[in-house]
Structures are given as C-alpha cells and as structure tokens.
C-alpha cells in the first residue's frame, strides 16, 4: 500500500471516529480536529473558551503536532497550565495542499501514538 493511500485511509478513519464522538456524525474539518488536539493538550476539556483562547488552543496543537518534525520544542507550562513552545526551525514555504497533507500526516501520527487508530 502506498504511503499516500495509507495516509488517506487512516485520515478518513480518524475523521469518522472523531466526528461520531464530537459532532453527531457530521464530518469534522481539519481546523476542528486541530482545535480538539489543542483542548486535549491543554487538558481542560470541560470548559468554555473565548475566541482568543480558541486561537491559542489551535496554536498549541500545531506546535505539538509539528514538534516531532523538529519545527517546535516544548518549553514550559505557565502558571495557568498552558503549554508554551519555542520555534526551533522555520517551516518551509508550502503550498496550501502541501500544508494540508503535512498537518493530516502529523495528526494521524499523533493519534497513532495514542492508539486511537492503527
């Protein structure tokens, strides 16, 4: 099975699982899944977030997802429990499609580590 085919199958399976759990079966998009990962990483799942906090949650998720690729490194948790990352290497310029594939691959790997999918 090609790497692209495997990624596509794993992505579709993951979207199904998360959509059934968090959106009554309506397919979650990439940004929604990134947001969920941010909430997971913060660890405060039963809380309402303000608009700016939602953006921060997505930033946390992106940092966490791209950490294994060497772009970010975890630094510390602040006094409110929010994780902070530092940039290790700038992301190369990517076209929208390339960026989407990178994020989907990173998300699939994140959930493979957590054994939600195989």
UniProtKB/TrEMBL annotation:
This is Uncharacterized protein. It comes from Flavobacterium calami. The lineage of its organism: Bacteria, Pseudomonadati, Bacteroidota, Flavobacteriia, Flavobacteriales.
């Amino acid at each position: 099975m090609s790497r692209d085919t495997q990624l596509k199958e794993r992505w579709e399976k993951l979207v199904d699982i998360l959509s059934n759990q968090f959106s009554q079966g309506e397919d979650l998009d990439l940004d929604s899944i990134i947001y969920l990962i941010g909430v997971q990483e913060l660890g405060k799942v039963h809380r309402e977030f303000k608009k700016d906090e939602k953006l921060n949650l997505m930033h946390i998720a992106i940092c966490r997802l791209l950490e294994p690729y060497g772009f970010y490194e975890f630094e510390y948790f602040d006094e409110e429990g929010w994780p902070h990352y530092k940039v290790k290497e700038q992301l190369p310029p990517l076209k929208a499609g390339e960026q989407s594939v990178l994020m989907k691959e990173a998300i699939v790997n994140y959930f493979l580590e957590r054994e939600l999918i195989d």
